[in-house]
User: Fold this.
Amino acid sequence: MKRIYVNEQWCLGCHLCEYNCAFANMNKDGAFREQAMADALKDVKINPKIKVEENGSICFAVNCRHCDDPICVKSCISGALTKQDGVIRIDRDKCVGCYTCIMVCPYGAIMPSDGIPVQKCELCLNNTCGEPACVKGCPNKAIVYEER
Assistant:
């Protein structure tokens, strides 16, 4: 199965993956998305499903690893998290916002969100990007989508 991998040595810490992720998952048309990107660059809060962490001079993107044996799915008390075709997905109608998945994820890849209890990377399968938007938008090719 293809997954997102991050090459930390190439990450610039530019946060463009976060912006591209947030806008790709807005489910809006291209014109609106472009305006939203311009607004985001003016301190408007965005909700990306990937986040860039910085530790000294090292930067890296944190996203869902779509684990083979996901503890988040096993721990979900409402059954909102499922694994389908190798991708861990959230059923927002079932999620009760208990945050158990946030607490058990060893990578910190599930996070609270505005408007919905939790969010995580779903490999852009719910939008029309074709490949994850964070990969498409990474200027240094530090984020790749491949099978290893």
